[in-house]
Amino acid sequence: MKILVPVKRVLDANVAVRVKTDGSGVELANLKMSMNPFDEIAVEEAVRLREAGTASEIVAVSIGPAQAQDTLRTALAMGCDTAILIKTDEAIEPLTVARLLQKICEQQAPDLVIMGKQAIDDDSNQVAQMLSALLGWPQATFASKFTLSDGTASVIREVDGGLETLDLDLPAVVSTDLRLNTPRYASLPNVMKARKKPLEEIDATSFGIDLSPTLRIVSTARPPERKPGSQLGSVAELIDILKTEGRVQ
User: Fold this and answer.
1) By the 8 A CB rule, do 3 and 111 touch?
2) How far apart are CA 183 and CA 41, in angstroms?
3) What would the CATH number be for the domain defined by 2-224?
4) Structure-derived torsion over alpha carbons of residues 8, 5, 112, 89, reported in degrees to the nearest 10
């Protein structure tokens, strides 16, 4: 069984987000970048399936600039076998990402695509669903438990009313939630080995897909500072303030 794992290069989760002075976006220059945390969970799950003998090959794929090689090398150090970089310096929207991944799936013919439910930079939560629709494959999102057997995937996902179990015929697309697993750290020997693993680069324009954005960011701004709270002496005082502000009659 071949598993395809898309991974994204994002601003490290431990770095404080800063808005550019001109309001054109988020500052990324000279800041630490890393693999999207939800994608780390997807890589970990794929590696566990391979270690259990269920999967035989894991291919990591990323879409982005040349620096995204570092993200792919991390995936290789965690246990992926090969990697593909779809190289572009453009800002790619979710639907375009799904279309590019569709082309890779048609080339690689994976039995399963495991990916993070969303990226922490835009929180779109769209690519897995769009990729499933483009491929015509069944999907299960927000997986918190996952098993494979006899050409089917059993996925437990959290919903508002409790837990939902889905059985999917393969090939399928699965997106991961936080509670699925705890990703491993890549050991130094594995980091060294990852440097020798195959990493293929493909120009994004070679797929014949329009990469131009359909949305334009007008401005980016930090949320307004919250006003400090105050301590009141009684419930009556609170009610008077609420009436003054017009919050209650």
Assistant:
1) yes
2) 5
3) 3.40.50.620
4) 50
Q: Report domain extents, the chain.
A: 2-224
What residues contact 173, with CB distance under 8 A and at least 6 apart?
A: 112, 113, 115, 128, 131, 132, 135, 137, 138, 139, 140
Report pLDDT digits (tens) over 215-227. 888 888 888 888 8
Provide the token pair at 162: 């409790």
Task: Copy the structure tokens of residue 174.
Answer: 């699965």
Q: Name the 3-class secondary structure at 48.
A: helix
Per-position DSSP letters for 114-158, written without gaps between them:
EEES--TTT----HHHHHHHHHT--EEEEEEEEEEETTEEEEEEE
Cβ proximity of 181 and 48 under 8 Å: yes
pTM for this model (two decimals)? 0.84
pLDDT tens across 110-144, in order? 999 999 998 888 888 899 999 999 999 999 999 99
With beta carbons less than 8 A apart as the criterion, state whether 112 and 3 touch: yes
49 CB neighbour count, 10 Å cutoff: 21
CB atoms within 10 A of CB 127: 26
* 229 Cβ neighbours under 8 A, 6+ residues apart: none
